[in-house]
Amino acid sequence: MDIIDIFGFLAASGAASDWKDTWPFGPGYAEGLASSLLKFGLIAVFFLGIAGLLRFLFGPGGFMRDKEFDLPPETADQAGEPDHAGDRSVGDGADGSKKTGGPHA
Fold this sequence. Notes:
- The structure is a single chain.
- Helices cover 43% and strands 7% of the residues.
- It has 4 helices and 2 strands.
């Protein structure tokens, strides 16, 4: 018996599901405050579950995270390049000296 036969049997049996009666997300707030708070709580649990799954997969040491993100950052000394982080020179002055400071100095 394959899946098509099972669906055909269920349709022919007339056993209608009562999912509309048990669906927790009805329109409005007619059910009361407790029911509405429980709906919001259920949505929060879903969001926290998704966030936890993403953290597990892509967080530090995660299975689907790029391994280069777990390496320590490469410093300028290791790369062999001069460090220009503290150099704020903007060019030569009229007298040949370096002007330091921001763009308005």
